[in-house]
Amino acid sequence: MQTILEKLNIKSVNFGTSTGLQAWSSGEELLDSFSPVDNQLIAQVTKTTFQDYQQVVEKANDAFKTWGNIPAPRRGEIVRQMGMAFREYKAELGKLVSYEMGKSLQEGLGEVQEIIDICDFAVGLSRQLYGLTMHSERPEHRMYEQYHPLGIVGIISAFNFPVAVWSWNAMIAWVCGDVCIWKPSEKTPLTAIACQHIITSVLKENNIPEGVSNIITGDYQVGEWLSSDTRVPLISATGSTRMGKIVGATVAARMGKSLLELGGNNAIIITENADLNIAIPAVVFGAVGTAGQRCTSTRRLIIHESIYESVKERLIKAYQQLRIGNPLDENNHVGPLIDSKAVEAYNAAVEAVHQEGGKMLVDAEVLLGDGYESGCYVKPCIAEVKPDFRIVKHETFAPILYLMSYSTIEEAIDIQNDVPQGLSSSIFTLNMREAEMFLSVNGSDCGIANVNIGTSGAEIGGAFGGEKETGGGRESGSDAWKAYMRRQTNTINYGKQLPLAQGIKFNL
Question: Domain Aldehyde dehydrogenase spans what residues (predicted)?
Answer without folding.
Answer: 28-489
